[in-house]
Amino acid sequence: MKLKVVNAAAGSAELELADATFAREFNETLVHQVMVAYMAGGRSGTKAQLTKAEVRGGGRKPHAQKGTGSARAGSSRSPIWVGGGRAFAAKPRDYTQKVNRKMYRAAIRAMLSELARTERLIVTPSVELAAPKTKLLVEHLKSLGLERALILVEAFEEKLFLAARNLPHVEVLAVAQLDPVSLARHDKVLATVGALKMLEERLA
Question: Which of the listed CATH numbers 1.10.240.10, 3.40.1370.10, 3.30.70.1060, 3.30.565.10 matches domain 2-44+97-202?
Answer without folding.
Answer: 3.40.1370.10
